[in-house]
Design goal:
Helix content of chain A: 25-40%
Order of helices and strands of chain B: EHEHEEEHHHHHHHEEHEEEEEHHH
Strand content of chain A: 5-15%
Shape of chain A: globular
CATH superfamily of the largest domain in chain A: [2Fe-2S]-binding domain
CATH topology of the largest domain in chain A: DNA polymerase, domain 1
Number of domains of chain A: 2
Strand order of the largest sheet of chain A: 2-1-5-3-4
Helix content of chain B: 25-40%
Strand order of the largest sheet of chain B: 4-5-8-6-7
Radius of gyration of chain A: 16 Å
Shape of chain B: globular
CATH topology of one domain in chain B: Enolase-like, domain 1
Number of helices of chain B: 13
Structural class of chain A: alpha+beta
Largest sheet of chain B: 5 strands, antiparallel
Largest sheet of chain A: 5 strands, mixed
CATH class of one domain in chain B: Alpha Beta
Oligomer: heterodimer
CATH architecture of one domain in chain B: 2-Layer Sandwich
CATH superfamily of one domain in chain B: CO dehydrogenase flavoprotein, C-terminal domain
């Protein structure tokens, strides 16, 4: 099977049954992408395919041949974090970190969806030319990524500060 | 997961031809449900025919309706400008389902044919007439908070989990099929079956048939329409009860036309025909809405954990119709 992963062409032999997640982790060593539930409920396995976020656990690798895949390893580079990664550190957007690669990829994909004026279920005006982004929109749009540590407030602050400017930026909530 | 062969089709005849080669072939859309079921060995196809390369265009029709290629993603359909303006209940129903990641993967055809999320259907150690005809039903006396209150049978109390289909049922959508015996069409409302004594037979599709497109007739008053989903958490959960509704009011404040469908309550998207009939010509008032909801739910029956959904469905119908009569609707 052939893929472009983080800008590099790769060719790999794989079992026809391999999920994209297992292919990335077990066959190619991209262990940044995490396996949480392995059934599309937690979002830890989120990667970008041609810029769109998907759950790699529910994706058969064979179906994604020839596509361009971005994992958390492709967001920043050694010694140079992606601005969103910096903001996660700054705002305590994680504790154990297991959901973080999925949160990061998901947020990058979300920002592109907002740029393309894709609505969410809490978008009040479906006919508007652009989505008015507030904290409620961000929480709804990130609901496919669970965080067992409950770092949601920090995650939303980090996203608000870097990817998507909300009216409340940077003080999304009052700190205790 | 059992082994399988994988083929990719570029058009419907090719897909149907490939699938004909194996009695245990399945069409593969986004895979968000099928891959999960294969991992649990609930689904054991010997061949997958990938149909994501088939037409997925969303095209307005001369009569004001809309034709949706079955390979369109859920995201693409919800984001479509025509859908957002002319069929807002459909955009809102899709956006109420799953997560953004899953909506990016899932196709319209796959959404329609997704299977119940009944835990006993998924758990191969449990008894399930849908998974194994004649085995019994552990849901009936088990954890059945999410199960059916309308149209269930002794054999099966599972619900159809789609949000999108509830809106499609309200809109009188037509589903276009193609298969070994040639193309045909069927109303979305007639595509899914009630369980009866054969809950394993979920749709009217014949072996090898493929959904190629969904067509929406024009419905001018669908501009005044919405979808409300009541669930156990604010986002990313299946419906306890959902309501899709479109309302057309006469100048004297009576109901000229109404479309109403319920989700989370039955083995299929539930078109609320009794409620619609009870509303036509009546004043658009909470009293009329309540009476219509009572008429629709008159035949409902509850199980140990889900009897509350009967009252919940009634109240949600009243709330949605009340919202649609508001000045800002």
């Amino acid at each position: 099977m052939n893929f472009t992963i983080n800008g590099q062409s790769v060719e790999v032999e794989a079992d026809i049954r391999s999920s994209l997640l297992d292919l990335l982790r077990n066959s190619l060593g991209f262990t940044g992408t995490k396996k949480g539930c392995d059934q599309g409920a937690c979002g830890a396995c989120t990667v970008l395919v041609d810029g769109e976020r998907i759950n790699s656990c529910l994706a058969l690798a064979v179906q994604y041949q020839g596509r361009s895949i971005t994992t958390v390893e492709g967001l920043g580079s050694d010694g140079s974090l992606h601005p969103l990664q910096e903001a996660f550190v700054e705002h305590d957007g994680f504790q154990c970190g297991y959901c973080t690669p999925g949160q990061l990829c998901s947020a990058v994909g979300m920002a592109r969806e907002i740029e393309r004026n894709i609505p969410s279920v809490v978008t009040a005006n479906l006919s508007a030319d652009s989505v008015a982004i507030d904290e409620r929109e961000l929480r709804e749009r990130m609901s496919g990524n669970l965080c067992r540590c409950g770092a949601y407030n920090g995650i939303i602050e980090a996203i608000s500060e870097t990817l998507v400017k909300t009216p409340a930026t940077p003080q999304v909530r009052a700190r205790a | 997961m059992n082994p399988f062969t994988y083929e990719r089709a570029s058009d419907a005849p090719a897909a149907i031809g490939l699938a004909k080669g194996s009695a245990a072939a399945r069409y593969l859309g986004g895979g968000t449900n099928l891959v999960d079921l294969m991992r649990e060995t609930v689904e054991r196809p010997e061949m997958l025919v990938d149909v994501t390369g088939l037409p997925g265009g969303i095209e307005p029709r001369a009569d004001g309706g809309l034709r949706i290629g079955a390979a369109a993603t859920n995201t693409a359909l919800a984001a479509d400008a025509h859908v957002r303006t002319h069929y807002p209940l459909l955009a809102r129903a899709i956006l109420a389902g799953a997560s953004a990641q899953i909506r990016n993967m899932a196709t319209v055809g796959g959404n329609i044919l997704q299977r119940t999320r009944c835990r006993y259907f998924y758990d191969t150690a449990a008894a399930c007439n849908k998974r194994q005809p004649g085995a019994g039903c552990d849901a009936r006396d088990g954890f059945n908070r999410y199960h059916a209150i309308l149209g269930a049978s002794p054999a099966c109390v599972a619900t159809h989990p789609s949000d999108m289909c509830v809106a499609l049922a309200a809109l009188d959508a037509t589903v276009h099929l193609d298969g070994p015996a040639g193309p045909r069409s069927i109303a979305l409302a007639d595509l899914h079956r009630l369980p009866g004594d054969r809950p394993d037979v979920e749709t009217e599709l014949k072996p090898g048939e493929l959904i190629t497109a969904v067509e929406l007739p024009p419905l001018s008053f669908a501009r005044r329409s919405t979808y409300r989903k009541v669930r156990d958490r604010a986002s990313y959960a299946f419906a306890l009860v959902s309501v899709a509704a479109a309302l057309d009011l006469a100048d004297d404040g009576t109901v000229r036309e109404v479309r109403l469908a319920l989700g989370g309550v039955a083995h299929k998207p539930w078109r609320a025909s009794a409620a619609e009939a009870a509303l036509k010509g009546r004043p658009a008032s909470p009293e009329s809405f309540r009476a219509a909801a009572e008429a629709e739910l008159a035949a409902a029956t509850g199980l140990r954990d889900n009897a509350f959904k009967i009252e919940l469905a009634k109240r949600t119908i009243v709330a949605v119709l009340s919202d649609l009569t508001g000045d800002d609707a």
